[in-house]
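Hello again, I could really use a second opinion on something today. I've dropped the whole record in just underneath, so have a look.
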Amino acid sequence: MKPTVWVAGEIKEHYGDRETISRFARYVIQSFVAWGILKDASIKGIYIQARKIPTNQQQIAILTESILLSTPESPLALKNVMESASLFAFETSPITGDYLQKNCPRINVNQFGPGEEMFCITSYL
């Protein structure tokens, strides 16, 4: 896990250097600690991933859809979705485009070669 200073630095770089940004970054990190996802390391401001939240295929499909909805780039490769930093707290297992196509009507799956599937959202409603 990244040190607090680094996480806060990245957030400040994106949103600007304001006290509210630092405070809310601390709140988010402390929430992960309270939920048992991160734990304090022996060095102040350093956190270690304590556990991952177990998920099933249906939950991974929902998380995949949420990543597609929150990412301006579209379509995304399955590899990019599964390696997204958004999923750091979740224990994920492989999911197929076939499963997503059948169980998530808003996700469109396109095959671009052997083992290369691209996903995008077909509609927002």
